[in-house]
Every structure is written in C-alpha cells, then in structure tokens.
Design a protein that fits this description.
2 domains; five-stranded parallel beta sheet; serine acetyltransferase, domain 1; alpha/beta; homohexamer; UDP N-Acetylglucosamine Acyltransferase, domain 1
Chain lengths: 287, 287, 287, 287, 287, 287
Amino acid sequence: MYDAPIRDAASQIGETLRRSGTQIYGKCLHLPDRKAIIDILDTLRKLFFPAYFGDAALMTLAPEDYAALLLEPLELQLAQQISLALPENSAADPDELAQDFIAQLPRVQQLLMSDVEALFDGDPAAQNKEEIIFAYPGLYAIFVYRLAHELYLRKVPTIPRIMSEYAHSRTGIDIHPGAAIGSHFFIDHGTGVVVGETTVIGDHVKLYQGVTLGALSPRGGHESLPGKRHPTVENGVTIYSGATILGGDTVIGAGAVVGGNAFLTRSVPAGTRVVIHAPEQTFKTTE
Amino acid sequence: MYDAPIRDAASQIGETLRRSGTQIYGKCLHLPDRKAIIDILDTLRKLFFPAYFGDAALMTLAPEDYAALLLEPLELQLAQQISLALPENSAADPDELAQDFIAQLPRVQQLLMSDVEALFDGDPAAQNKEEIIFAYPGLYAIFVYRLAHELYLRKVPTIPRIMSEYAHSRTGIDIHPGAAIGSHFFIDHGTGVVVGETTVIGDHVKLYQGVTLGALSPRGGHESLPGKRHPTVENGVTIYSGATILGGDTVIGAGAVVGGNAFLTRSVPAGTRVVIHAPEQTFKTTE
Amino acid sequence: MYDAPIRDAASQIGETLRRSGTQIYGKCLHLPDRKAIIDILDTLRKLFFPAYFGDAALMTLAPEDYAALLLEPLELQLAQQISLALPENSAADPDELAQDFIAQLPRVQQLLMSDVEALFDGDPAAQNKEEIIFAYPGLYAIFVYRLAHELYLRKVPTIPRIMSEYAHSRTGIDIHPGAAIGSHFFIDHGTGVVVGETTVIGDHVKLYQGVTLGALSPRGGHESLPGKRHPTVENGVTIYSGATILGGDTVIGAGAVVGGNAFLTRSVPAGTRVVIHAPEQTFKTTE
Amino acid sequence: MYDAPIRDAASQIGETLRRSGTQIYGKCLHLPDRKAIIDILDTLRKLFFPAYFGDAALMTLAPEDYAALLLEPLELQLAQQISLALPENSAADPDELAQDFIAQLPRVQQLLMSDVEALFDGDPAAQNKEEIIFAYPGLYAIFVYRLAHELYLRKVPTIPRIMSEYAHSRTGIDIHPGAAIGSHFFIDHGTGVVVGETTVIGDHVKLYQGVTLGALSPRGGHESLPGKRHPTVENGVTIYSGATILGGDTVIGAGAVVGGNAFLTRSVPAGTRVVIHAPEQTFKTTE
Amino acid sequence: MYDAPIRDAASQIGETLRRSGTQIYGKCLHLPDRKAIIDILDTLRKLFFPAYFGDAALMTLAPEDYAALLLEPLELQLAQQISLALPENSAADPDELAQDFIAQLPRVQQLLMSDVEALFDGDPAAQNKEEIIFAYPGLYAIFVYRLAHELYLRKVPTIPRIMSEYAHSRTGIDIHPGAAIGSHFFIDHGTGVVVGETTVIGDHVKLYQGVTLGALSPRGGHESLPGKRHPTVENGVTIYSGATILGGDTVIGAGAVVGGNAFLTRSVPAGTRVVIHAPEQTFKTTE
Amino acid sequence: MYDAPIRDAASQIGETLRRSGTQIYGKCLHLPDRKAIIDILDTLRKLFFPAYFGDAALMTLAPEDYAALLLEPLELQLAQQISLALPENSAADPDELAQDFIAQLPRVQQLLMSDVEALFDGDPAAQNKEEIIFAYPGLYAIFVYRLAHELYLRKVPTIPRIMSEYAHSRTGIDIHPGAAIGSHFFIDHGTGVVVGETTVIGDHVKLYQGVTLGALSPRGGHESLPGKRHPTVENGVTIYSGATILGGDTVIGAGAVVGGNAFLTRSVPAGTRVVIHAPEQTFKTTE
C-alpha cells in the first residue's frame, strides 16, 4: 500500500523498535505526564504567591481556605503522577508520598520567602519585590528546585528530573534535585549555572551566571556511584560569574568570596577572598 | 471537611500568606499581564518585519496603512499594560507614555535594520538575511531589548523587565533594559551573554556567546545604587566568547578586539588587541 | 482617520518598509512554517521513541506498520516545507528531497540509540534510560541536530536553521546543522555549548556545559567563506565544562581529555590529557 | 493592488457600508459579547446545580462560600455586559442592575427546583432526576428563560434576546424573555415550542413539542405595539403537541387539557377538556 | 468580605443547596462526561464512514487493522463512561457491557448502510450519497439513535439519554433510545420529529419533518409506567410532515401512507392510504 | 495482538468497509472541509455587518479597503473548497466560480439589508435593528441561504448543502439552496420551517414557525426528478405558523394571507385570505 522508500524505511525502523523490545515500543511503559507536572508547578506557584499568579476571585476566601482549596486536588494529581513514576513492583505508596510532600510545603514556602529577600537585597537593579516574584529566572529555578528536592528526598523517580529540566529549559539554570541548599539562596542572571547532585550549599549563598559546582572527573560509570562528588559551599559565600568549583571534598568556607572565572579544585578557608589574577594578556594595536 | 494533613498545611501556608499582608495575598495588587506583553512584542515583530511574521492578507494594503492598522490597537494595549504597571499614586499618564513610545518606533525599526545588516555581514554561516530575521536568537534579543529600553527610559516599571526576561528565557541572552546600545549591534550564538544595567555600547559592536559586561562587585544593596557600575564599549569593538569585562570605569576603546575568555577589570586603549595567553596547560598522556 | 502620532509613526515605518522593497514587505516571500517544522520534529520523536512520546493506541500495530503510518504523512509535510524553503528558481525537487530524507531515518535512529547509551553510561546521576529519553536536554539537542544535518547535507535552506534554533531555545545548546558528528555523542547539562558549522566530531565524544568548538577569528565576511573554520575532535575525546577550542586546523587527537575552562587554539596529540593550571589566584581574608 | 473583480465587489460593498452610515460600519457600536453571556449562563448553571456542572474542588467549601465565590465575579461580568447593552445616554446604572439581578437568584433557583420536580413527575420515561438536570432540553430552556426574564423585567436591552436565542438554538424551544411563567413548568421534547412576549402562564403547566402560544395577527408594526397579544394559560393546564393557541384575550382556564394539534383563538373555561376530532380522513388502499 | 447583596444571595442559595443534600451539592455524584460521550460518537463515525470523517493517514492500513485500531481505545473509554453512569451498588460489569456493545457494531454499521440507501433512494434532491453521509441531519440522528439503543437494551443509564439529546440539539430530531427501529429508515428535514420510548418501527419506513409518534395521554406518573405507550409502524409505511400518531395500540399497517398533518389515535390497515381532507378553509379577499 | 471481541468486530467492520470499496474507505475521496466552510460564512458575516461581527481595528480603514481586505483571502479559500467539491473530471474552473461568486456579493448584501428591514417592520417585539442582526435566527438562516443559493446556481456540489445544514442545525430552519427567494424575506421564530428545492418566493413574503413549502408526494426516486415540485409564493404573501403548502403547481397569489395550520395543495388567488376553521373540537369537563 505504501511506496517503496517508505516501506523500506518503515521496515528498518520497525526492526529497530522491535529489537529494543518493550523498552521503546509497546504499551507497557508508564511514565509521568510532563504537562501534568507543569500544571502541578503552576498550582504551587498560585499557592505560594497568590497575588501574582492566583485567581482574583478565589482571594476573597480566608487565606487558609484558599490554600486548602488548592491543596486538595493537588494532592490527588501528585499521587497520580507518582504512581505513574514508581516502578510496578514498588512498595512505596503514592498517596502517602503525596501527603508527605504536602506536609513539607509550609516550610518550602518560608524558604522561598527568604530567597525573595535575598534577591531583593542582593540585586541593586531590582526596583521592587514584585519584579522578583513576577519575572526573575533565578527565583523560578530555586522555586522548582525546592519542590523537586522534596520529591528526590522521598525517592520518587523521574518527576524531580522532569521538573528540573523544565526549569532548566526556561531559565538556563540547571540545579540537580539532589543538591542540598539552605535559605536565602541568590542566583542572578543565571544562564549556565550548574549545581550537581551531591552539592551542599549553606544559607545566604550567592551565585552569578555561569557558575559550575561540579564533579572532578565524572568519567566513572553510574554503577560505581561515589558518595559525594560535588563541592560544599558554606554560609554567606559569594561566587561570581563563570567560576568553576569541582570535587566532593572541596569546601568553600563560610563568608568566602570567589572571584569571577575562578577555577577551584581544592578547599578555601572561611573568610577568604579568592582574587583571580587575569591570565596573562597582551595588548597590541589591532591591524 | 479536609483531611488533617491538608488542613495543617493549609493553615500554616494561610498564616504565611496572612502575615506578609497584602503583598502576596489579597486582590489589591495590579500587575501587567505577561501574556499581553508577549502579544505586544508579537505585534511589533509583525510591524517591523511584515513579510516574515505578518498576515499576508494585510500586506495588500499600502505599507503606511498596514503600519497604522497595527499601531492603533497597539497603542491602546500598551497604555492598558502601562496603567497596570504604574504605582497607584503615579503622576505619569499611561496614554501619553504609550503615544511617546509609538513615536520612537520608526527610529527603533531603523536601528533593527542596521542590526540585521551587522548580523549578515558578521556571520559567515548566514546563508541569507531571511534566516537572520526569521531564526537568529541574537536578533530577537536585540529586538526585545530595543523596545524594552524605550520603556525603561520613560520610567515605566516592571514591563521592561518582563520583556527582557521573556527574551532571556527564549534565547539565553540577558540584556538589561537600562543598557544603552548603538546601531549595528551583533550577537552570535548568544547563550550566556549578560549586559548590565548601566553598560554603554557604541555602534558596530560584536559580542559572542558567554560574554559578560558586568559590575565589579555587585555586593552593594540597591539602596546605595552607585551611578555607573558596568563598562563602556566604544564603536567597532569585538568581544569573543566567554570574555568577562567588569566595572563602571572600564572602557574598551574604539576598534579594540578582546580575545575569548579574556578577563578585564581595567580599560583598554582604542585600536588595541587583547590577546589572551591561554592559562598554563600541561599536556600529558592520558592513562 | 488616525491620530497624528500614529499617522506620523505609520508613515515613517511605511517608508522604511517601502524602501527595503519586497524584502520585508509584500506577499512574495515564501518561508517554511516554524510551527509545521516543530510538528515534524514531534512526529519524528514519536517515530523513534514510540513508548515515550507516541500514541498508545497506535502501538497495537506491528512496529513496521506503526512506522509506515507516521512516515507517509510526514513525507508529504516535509516536502511541503521544503518547497516553501527552496528559492523559486531552484532546480531541486522537494518530493525527492523528502524521500531521500526518509531513507536516512533508520540510520539516524540507530545513531540516536547509540547516543542514549552514551548518556546512560556517562552520567552517574542518571537513574535509568527512561529519564534520558524523556527529559535530557542533551539528547534532545542531538536528536534535532541529527535530523537538521541530513537536510543540511541535501542543501535544503532555512529549515535546518529553524530546527537548530528551536533546539537552542529549548536547551541552550547550539549545534550548527553543518557539523559532522559521529556515534555515541554525549552532552551533559549543555547550556552554552556551541558547535560550529565545519566542526568534525568522531565517535564516543563527550562535551560538558559551556564548551565552545569555534572559529579562530570569525571576522571574515560570509562572501569569503573559508573552507574549514572549526576544530576536529577525534574518537573518544572528553571535553570538560567551559573549555574553548578554536580553529579549523586544531585537532584534538583520539582519546584526549581536555580539562574544564581550557583554551586551545592548537592541536593536541591523541591520548593526551590537557590539565589546566588554574590561573594564579590570591587567597586573602575578606574584609 | 487587487484584481478587478475584487476591486469592483469591494467598492460596491464599501458603498453599501458607507451609505448605511455608523449603523453597520465604524467603531462606535457597543454590543454585549455573546461569548461572555454564554459564560454567565454557564456560571449560573454551576451555581444552581453544583454537583452536575460545578468544579469538584470547590465543593469542599461550605455551600454559602461556594455560592459567594461564584457570585462575586459574576456580578462584575454581568455589570460589564449590561453597560455594553445600555444605550449611551441611558440613566440606568449597570452595577445596580447587576446587583438587583443577583438578589433575584435565590428565588429563581427555587423556581427551577420546582421545574425539576415537574419534569420528573410528568415524564414516565425519566429514569431519575439526574437525567433531567443533566440532559433535558426542556429544563435548559426554562433555566435560560427564567434568567433572561429577570433582565427583561429590569429593561436591560439585547442581553435577554441573546440568551433566549442561544437556548432556542440549542433546544428548538423559543420562549420570549417577556413571558410571565409560574412555578413547576414542564416542557417535554420541546422542538418547535413558541411562547410569545406577553404570554402569561400559571403554575403546574405542561407543554409538549410544537405548541405555539402566539399573537392572533402579528401584522401590526412594532410602533403600534398593542398591550397583550398572547394568551393566558392558568394553573394546572396541559397542552399537547402541536396545539396552537392565539390571541391576547384567549384564556385557558385552570386545569384545562388541550388536545394535540388543537387550534384555539378563543377562551376555554377552567376544568374543560378540548378534544380535537381529527380532521376528516379517508382511508383507501394505496396503489 | 463580600458586599451585603452577594452575602444575602449566597446564604439563601447555600441554604437551598444544603437542604437538597447530596443531590445537587457535594462531591459524591458521579456522572458520565458529556464531552467524552461526544468523543465516542465522533470515533464511531470515523469507524463507520472512514473516508468522510476519518484520518487519511490511517486509511493506508488494511480496513480490519483500521477498525481494530479505533475499537481498542474506544472499548476502554466506553467502559469508563459506563462505570460513571452505573449506580454505585450496581452488579453490572462496565467492561462486559462495553465489550458486548462492541460486538453489536458490525450489525449497527450494516443497518446504517441500509439507511444511507434509503435516504438516497427517497430524496429526489440528493445529488449523491456523499452529501447524505456528510451532511444529512436525518442520517446523523439515526446513527446516534442506533448506538444509544444498543446501550439502552443493555440497561446502561444516562448515557443513551445524553447521546439522544445531543443529536436532538444538533438536528431537532428526538428519537428515544428505547424505540425499536428496523432497517432502511428514512427521515427527511426532520426538525420536530418525535419518536417515543416504546415505539416499534419496521423496515423501509419514511418519516418527514414534524411527525410525532407519541403516547395518548402521558399524564400518568412514571411510577405507573404502562407497558407500550407508543404506536407500531409496520414495514414500508410513509408518514408525511406534521402527522401525529398516538397510542400504544395504534398500528399503522404495512405499506400504508399517512398524509401530512394527519392525526391518528387508532390503527390503519395495511396497504391503506390516509388522505387528510384539509380542515374547512374559507377564502376571502384580504382587506 | 487484540482481544477476540475486538478482533471479531474489526474483521466484520473491515469486511463492510472493504466491500463498499472506495466509497467509504481509502484515501481517494476529496470533500470540502466543513470547518473551512463555516469560516467562509463567518468572514462573509464580517463583510456584510462589520460593526456587529468584524474586527474593530480593521474598521479604521475606508469601507472599500475593509471589504477588499476580506475578499482577497476569501476568494482563495472558496476556490480551494470548490476544487475539493468538484468531481475529479469536472470541466468547471474553481477560480472562475469563486470570482463569479464574489461578483454577486454586493447584490446579496443589498438583499440582506432588505431582509433586516422586513424583520424590523414585521416583528413588534423587536426593540431595534441591532437585535435582529445580532441575534435573530431567521436572519441567519436567510443569510446562509442567499450565499448557498449563489453557489447552487453555479452548480457547485456539496458546499451549498453543507452550508444549509449548518444553518438548519443552528436555527431549525431548513431552506434548500435551490429555492428562489425575493427581497424583504421575513421568518419569525422559524423552528421547523422547510422550504423545498424548487420553491419560488416573491418579495415581501413572511413565514412563521413550522411552515412547510413542500412537494406533494416526494415518493419518486431522484432519477425521475420532476421539474417543479414545490409551490410558488407571490409578492407580499404572509403564511402563519404551522401551515403546509404542497405541490409544484400550487401558487399563493400576491398579497394572500394563509392562516396558521392551513393545509393547501391547490392555488389561492391573489388578495385572498385563507381562514382556517379550527377542526371540530369538543369541550368537556376534565375528570
């Protein structure tokens, strides 16, 4: 019924699909729904910042009623997605996991309020907090990270990754859901920021665009997953744009300031300022 | 009516919403509508490049009539968004601001035509101007910047930021609406480019991916907003990928060329070529 | 009929539109439809990874029938877009080009399967292959590149660029459709990666975020298009984050490892490890 | 710029548009928005029958809170549409009219609950009340009529007509918003039912498909609008399918039963049964 | 928090909602989804008339594969809607009911093909069968009836009614799902046709607009549901527009022709022609 | 791969699809697109009544420019649909037919303006002309008829029928595109009105709901299509609700008035008033 070129291509592709078995063809795969997860994030933004993203009509309710109204269906939706994400023989209970996640939200909201403070205090170009909540990619990436992290801690597969990749795609900021990050976290501009899975970050830390907190040599296969592969950044540290800090044993001590484009694979004592001396540069008249 | 976990979470979140008062809960906040602002950008793209983004049926009109047709509702929409963005007690007149903005558009369009020239002349991989107008992220980011800048100059709050974050999200290029940029501006690839609020850029300047034009130490709070915190880049300068140039007093003189990954915190005379000597690198056989 | 400010702006903009002739105004321009091209990419994703993005109902078919079902309309849609992209006096036949493209798909799929392997083997944080296919920006960028490249090879204008800019916008990864890339290609995080038009990359190559494979001095106009302007990266090379490698004669020999933030404008022998010595950095106590 | 046939047609149509002045061309006309009015009807259906058409999440509220939540934005929307419907020099206050309308809703809801009872008691084919609320065109037409009538009584122009024509289009039942109709109203099947503007209908009245309650000779122009042109139907009357009852002085007395296809232009005493003797019919063998 | 008028209306409406208990408020009601049922009808139309309503791409399959492809998800969807429609304590099995329904579809399709024949043979204005399948409301109403009837026979509640009311709304033709109708059924124009629940109709029967096949006196409550309340129409009968035929014992014998506007409450022998003598009409000069 | 019940049903349905050959299965059928035709009707409504249905922004144009703007793409769309409707071997030229249709539009618009007059003059309940243009089903049905008629006259198949059935579905008014209807046509309420293919209607004619202008005995197959099967209604005739007038030789003379529910199969002289004497009716006390 088909032309020869289509028939040929189809039979080869069919062969590849068949050969790789149930993995990429057939109906047994059950995966969370990306659109549903984005909806969950949207609802959570309405929950945390009603005046910015919520429905005006609903804000005639008492705040508690407003919150409950959003939480009830959210719990259900999340449980549904979790049940799609869990492997079939999993002993975990999606309802319990969703409930447990809900219970963390008040704490997450408070952390986010601290992040808003940090962004406002740290960015001289911010005219008001409205702009930060409404339009800062840094806040959006942190918001998504804090939620994905709670699911990661509870060993929910796939969903945290979908969340973090969605934020990555929107903001250029790539924070692994496994990272542990304290309060008053600040990211400005943010494009190119990478924060690895086992990174530990304290309170009041500031990162600028292009900062990498990475592993020293991520060549090892994932079967030999070493414990801690990414650095520790203590309270009050500032890391300027383009700096690269690598290694699981690398500790940037409290209050340290790491200059732009610095490259660190060993620890820095607390209260130190790492001043990068620009690499040798020749100035000559352009032809 | 609700289960205990929801009730508990709701009451805590309600408490947080209540405590931070009208700022994040309640209906008094009035903010521009992000979707409406993206619509305005879309209309402006149709206005400037009709053959690429406009409606074929409308192009049967004389160009003047086509332009007027798009401008009339645009003025209204913009005035509406401006009135949402202005603080309640503002003395500014949204209609006047919108009218004033409209009056700048012919000049903005001419600048954009010069940018198209620059991109075509500067990118050997560009097959034709169609590709540039239709698909280059650099041009899109400059287009949005030039419009946001006109609003910034007229002290319209929030909208310029929404515009620039939208472009940032789509292109990875983050140009603050406050920057002053001349004609024939060129950005290639662009991911990670950051241009700060008080940056001054001349005509015929070229930037490649990952270039930062930033502040020296942006630690100062926004209450102590110093005058000029970002560099000046004179006419005809080229800055290759990954270069970082910091400081309000740093001036890159006309015609200078800054090599990739350069790191500059002091001025460079006109006509100079900054050749970066790669940081010392050891070559040894891999195990 | 219009107010003076609109009339004035309209007449100036009209003048600009008129002066630049048919290029930006009038109805003779025929361009591919960006939305249609994204649809084509979506269909191809359903074709290659049915269990992740396809329609469950259709997977009751034999894999060959499933493939043929998707390929038939796809060929038509692609031919339509190609005919919009070709210049009017082109001798090329859209139907033939589309057919030829279809014939490459089985091979492209196999390359992509090798990329999935590479991503799984190379990222210790990857919990399973599902996550990679479903959510990794690196794989998405490679997927789009491999398809755009086939069109580029067949000299189809504009469409490859629309595809690569779409992927760039979603992932921050900018691979020129002209690059030649072998099997088992690995990109992690990826934001800021730039791979130039004449780059040649072997099999089993790994790139991390912010790597640039660029031209030495792209100042030359596009009329004087030099042959090979971007580096060659041989089999088994790993290039860590932020490294910059420039020049058409620069060859990174097989199995070499280039450290993060390295800056190379000359070749590196096979089996070499380029260890970057961090630029001189002073540690002093912060005030 | 256009072909001759289009130019010719356009100039003639333009002439017609111009000649009929502002009435059909120009931007001064302000009319209610049909879609907004259908939205208002949808909201009212959610208000009256939450379990059938409402949002499950909202039903966790106390019924009073649920109702208030829907009423608040509804009042605003309705006021907006009323202000579009009122002539420009009108002395009426849209906000007051909307508020007054809201105040009638509890009574309207009770009437509708009585109509549900009537439909359930009167239709032997009804399996349960769910079907009636969910799917009976008769109930839908009555629901819309009761709301349109409240606006008609308050002399709101155009909106009642838009409402009744919408119901007419969906159900084939055409009840003029001006008619006065008591409780427990019953319409079965309904296609072709027409109830004129000055009709008066008591409680517990039943109408079947194709019943006309019309004016005797509606030839008179609308300038000579006579007082009452349509019949009065007293409590407990049943009118079977296809019956036509005409005239402002025609009164169908309480409890009367009018047989199918009856044609009445004069009054019928209470408690009477109008048995139509089928028109003379010949029975002959078909060829 | 609300104004007094809203608070008052809300409290009264809340009271009504509360008083009628779970019936119209609360979340325990489970009902089929009207949109899902319309989707099911759309899929069935694609199944029966692929070339008219189906997806061209799918028609490259063998017809059997095409049919199976549509039937598999349809069975699931239908079972889901049936489970929503069944009362909670029902012993019926939704999956079995859906499977049983699927098994009837080949027979239903053949009946519909006979209806297409009948419409083509019976309407001199039909230019071709395409028009009939594509645009005749009569065929659409019969199509929906035949499907709703199969569910009615299997005692599925609510869904048949939703289906028949949807067809009623689109076509003005109201066929109760309980009616039993033979092959080659013909309805022309159709507006106002009513066919009651216990009607029995043979093969090759023709109905024109406004025909009622109704109950004699449907006053009895539904608790006293009498056996057969609507007429029997034998093979080959034609009933012209506006005719009314009432009563469970009324039988229109095979091959009879009932003239337009006839009114019958008693049986008509086979082969009879019922010629209606127009009611006495006076012709006088109009004033 | 499928369960037995699906496999069985699919194979039988497949057999039916296969047996009826290309007629209902396969991809060779080309049919107009219903949605595209509704779009064409919507555009024509915007063309004729801009202030009611058009885009406010466009009404800043001179009326002629407005009209031309809408006509240009409309001609193209219509030609496309006509080419889908014409049989493959047709000698007719879609472009010419579309152009010819466009040329009739000024005349059609003038007829419609006369219909608006007639509706306003004839309906005492009409408050203003706005309501008529905006909301009267009678006007909508006439609008669609007048357009479908022009296509019918030019022997365009299928499209006129799709148009008339769409209007039928929305209004319950079924006017065959073949009917010839003069100016100042008036239909009130309209549900159930049927106007047959060869009907001829003069100027200033009024029809009320449920009027049938039909064929005497439409039993004849369409192969024996008799010339004129439906009545002629001369200038100034009024026909009240429910009247039935049948036969190709039946002429209702100029100025005649036909009473409600009249049944006529023979001609009526000009200036006559047909008063229907209600069929004999007994009045007895209801039990």
